[in-house]
Amino acid sequence: MYEDSPVPPDPAAETATPAHTATTVERGSFCLARCACGWSGPARRSRDLARTDAAGHAAAVPG
């Protein structure tokens, strides 16, 4: 007879910033670091330097 109304979505969950999860992406002979927040580092020929860029970004971001 009565229907339960659906729970409205939490507006705070929609506006939350994405987690800072950095990965490395290869493009041809170059490698670059990318983060879920939209940040990307410079293209590097060294995977190790791209990983260092990602670690530096994660350390620079508060929280």
Please tell me about this protein's structure.
The model has no long low-confidence stretch (mean pLDDT 81). This protein has helices spanning 11-14, 47-60, and strands spanning 22-27, 30-35. The protein has a domain at 20-60. Strand 1 (22-27) and strand 2 (30-35) form a beta hairpin. A two-stranded antiparallel sheet has the order 1-2. The protein has 63 residues and is of the alpha+beta class. 29% of the residues lie in helices and 19% in strands.
User: How does the major sheet shape up?
Assistant: 2 strands, antiparallel
Q: Total number of helical segments? A: 2
Distance between the termini: 48 Å
Beta strand count = 2
Uncertain parts: none
Content-based structural category = alpha+beta
Pattern of helices and strands: HEEH
Strand order of the largest sheet: 1-2
Share in β-strands: 15-25%
Q: What is the residue-mean pLDDT, rounded to a whole number?
A: 81
Helix content: 25-40%
Biased composition (Low complexity): 12-22
Region (Disordered): 1-22, 42-63
Biased composition (Pro residues): 1-11
Which features characterize this protein?
alpha+beta; elongated; 63 residues
What would you say about this model in short?
The protein is an alpha+beta fold. Helix content is 29%, strand content 19%.
